[in-house]
Amino acid sequence: MDDILQYTGSSYDGEYNNGRMEGKGTYGFPTETRYEGEMKDGMFHGKGSLFFPNGSRYEATWENGVAIEGKYTFADGLLFEEEDWKYCDGYDRRFYTEITGNLRPAGHESLVNNEPRHEIPEGHYDCGDGFYNPKTRVVVDYNLKFLRNADEDEHTWIIKTCLKGWDEYIGFTPKVNA
User: Which Gene3D superfamilies match (predicted)?
Assistant: First the structure.
């Protein structure tokens, strides 16, 4: 079992039954995400939480490796609510930290939720959990480690809404007669 974990870059520290991960344990993924909780027959089963490198977490009840109910909490403490979501909607664009008491004076708006802001590499976007390269369509975390490949919807959203790592004049350009 340990050979397979090493081969995949994963780790496990916990209880075994008949050579299978079973009982309480901690499973580490090569992406630095870790699961802490109950296992059965080598799968997440029972109560357990995923902890992500960006500080967010997903606490759930698992059944044979599938989350049957759970809740996601962002790194800043905001609990995701699927219904009646009020965070950064079309009417109130403040970040959660601004809503909970850190609203800055007029003229000092927050462009990102966490200050100080990360320096965005040239040609990239800051998409909230890392940097996005629109040429390769890859998202890396703020330490430049691979997170995911962006699909078409995420690519379009990032291009339309996220901060760029370069200056671009987008104002009025007068016509010049030659």
Answer: Histone H3 K4-specific methyltransferase SET7/9 N-terminal domain
pLDDT tens across 48-75, in order? 999 998 889 999 999 999 999 999 998 8
Rounded Cα gap, residues 41 and 54, in angstroms: 29
- Report the DSSP pairing between strands 163-164 and 146-149: unpaired
Contacts of 155-162 with CB under 8 Å at 24 or more apart are 158/125, 158/127, 158/132, 158/134, 159/125, 159/134, 162/125, 162/126, 162/127, 162/128, 162/132
pLDDT(43) > 60: yes
pTM above 0.90, yes or no: no
Amino acid at 63: E
Structure tokens at 146: 């691979």
Greatest mean pLDDT among 36-40, 50-54, 120-124 lies in 36-40
Closest CA to 123 of 147, 158, 86: 158
Tell me which residue of 51, 5, 45 sits closest to 22, measured CA to CA: 45
Question: Would you state the structure tokens that stand for residue 58, as one six-digit string?
Answer: 């997903």
